[in-house]
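REQUEST ID: PR-0412
SUBMITTED BY: lab tech R.K.
PRIORITY: routine
TASK: structure prediction, single protein chain
INPUT:
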Amino acid sequence: MQRGKEGFSVLRYLIYFSQVGFTVITPPVLCCFGAIWLRNRFGWGNGAVIIGILLGIAVAACSLRDFLRFTERKARESAEKEKEL
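STATUS: complete
OUTPUT:
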């Protein structure tokens, strides 16, 4: 029985790792492409692209912070559950 729990634990950490990558990479990329599209479509300057990149980095940082809080809460709950057993 113990071996199955370890397998789920490894899978859980793999999912967390991929979620962090997706959470950190996606916002800057989407904001950058959106800013480039706005620049080309409406003739805005390169300042729009810089603002888009900075906005994407800020969103990625907020998402990473929220994810780290989530994992810390889950680890605390898991430790409390093991302590009860």
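NOTES: The mean pLDDT is 89.
REVIEWED BY: pending
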